């Protein structure tokens, strides 16, 4: 099927109403993107932030007649407003995406492999994971930082807490690396389901327990990993710390490198902190809980 996309630059206060108008005209999808590459990091819980220069993008069937919509927009928007209609190449986007998703190695033992690719090393620790609705495939630097950290730990017989488990990739990797049991916690029911499905696919489904926050158990783990965001890491410091036993290991990510020292200092009250690990714009903070 052929598609066309309509792109309109607008101030943020008008973006949502404009997006609703495109939906009324039959847009199959409406997205909001940054028109000028403006950094914009952590919204508060429940807050929707748009950029000072927002671009509203509507995706339409190429057979749709958008002339009346374009005339309406030109009559209502400022004369210098960008209104651009572009054809999209008709291709098998799913196949193209699959062709470009390859097995990835983290540390010395661990590989994350999509199911449609051949495993590069049958003797390695291989986690089979297909991207889905929940965050975490290994492609993002924050996930990669945590996977390499786990690969470097002696996890045999350990209890691991994956706080903000997403796809379950960190907990599953821990189990494949020798952990005895993983407890995963996430606010999103879809993440809970994705984690269980991915654990089952990797034959570790019986070793993982998954909870929404209101049901999370009280326990002391040997290893705690939380790949979320700096804001929740600050707000939930006491909760996350309480999961880690004395002498246990902690890793925190989802942190911009500019935020890392602040998080490191915050957790140093209860942990002997390691050097900050950096990859691109992102960081990992880790440490060992005081005895």
From TrEMBL:
One of its GO terms (cellular component) is cytosol. S-adenosyl-L-methionine binds at residues 143, 164, 186, 227. It is found in: Cytoplasm. InterPro entries: Ribosomal_L11_MeTrfase_PrmA, Ribosomal_PrmA_MeTrfase, SAM-dependent_MTases_sf. This is Ribosomal protein L11 methyltransferase. Methylates ribosomal protein L11. The keyword Phosphoprotein does not apply. Its EC number is 2.1.1.-. The keyword Membrane does not apply. It comes from the Bacteria. It catalyses: L-lysyl-[protein] + 3 S-adenosyl-L-methionine = N(6),N(6),N(6)-trimethyl-L-lysyl-[protein] + 3 S-adenosyl-L-homocysteine + 3 H(+). PANTHER family: ELECTRON TRANSFER FLAVOPROTEIN BETA SUBUNIT LYSINE METHYLTRANSFERASE (PTHR43648). GO terms for biological process: methylation. GO terms for molecular function: protein-lysine N-methyltransferase activity. HAMAP family: Methyltr_PrmA.
């Amino acid at each position: 099927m052929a598609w066309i996309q309509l792109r309109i630059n607008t101030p943020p206060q008008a973006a949502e109403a404009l997006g609703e108008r495109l939906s009324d005209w039959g847009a199959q999808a409406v997205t909001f993107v940054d028109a000028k590459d403006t950094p914009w990091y952590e919204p508060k819980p429940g807050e929707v932030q748009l950029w000072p220069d927002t671009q509203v993008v509507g995706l339409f069937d190429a057979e749709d007649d958008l002339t009346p919509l374009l005339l309406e927009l030109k009559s209502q928007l400022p004369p210098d407003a960008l209104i651009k209609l572009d054809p999209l190449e008709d291709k098998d986007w799913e196949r193209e995406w699959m062709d470009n998703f390859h097995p990835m190695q983290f540390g010395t033992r661990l590989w994350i492999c999509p199911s449609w690719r051949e495993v590069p090393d049958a003797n390695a620790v291989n986690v089979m994971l297909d991207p889905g609705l929940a965050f975490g495939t290994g492609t993002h630097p924050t996930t990669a930082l945590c996977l390499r950290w786990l690969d470097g730990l002696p996890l045999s017989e350990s209890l691991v807490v994956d706080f903000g488990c997403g796809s379950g990739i960190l907990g599953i990797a821990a189990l494949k690396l020798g952990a005895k049991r993983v407890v995963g916690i996430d606010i999103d029911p879809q993440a809970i389901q994705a984690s269980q499905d991915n654990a089952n696919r990797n034959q570790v489904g019986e070793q993982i327990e998954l909870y929404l926050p209101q049901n999370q158990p009280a326990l002391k783990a040997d290893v705690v990993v939380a790949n979320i965001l700096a804001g929740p890491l600050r707000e939930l410091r006491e909760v996350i710390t309480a999961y880690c036993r004395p002498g246990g290991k902690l890793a925190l990510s989802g942190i911009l490198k500019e935020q890392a020292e602040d998080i490191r200092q915050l957790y140093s009250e209860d942990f002997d902190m390691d050097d900050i690990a950096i990859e691109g714009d992102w960081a990992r903070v880790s440490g060992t809980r005081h005895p």
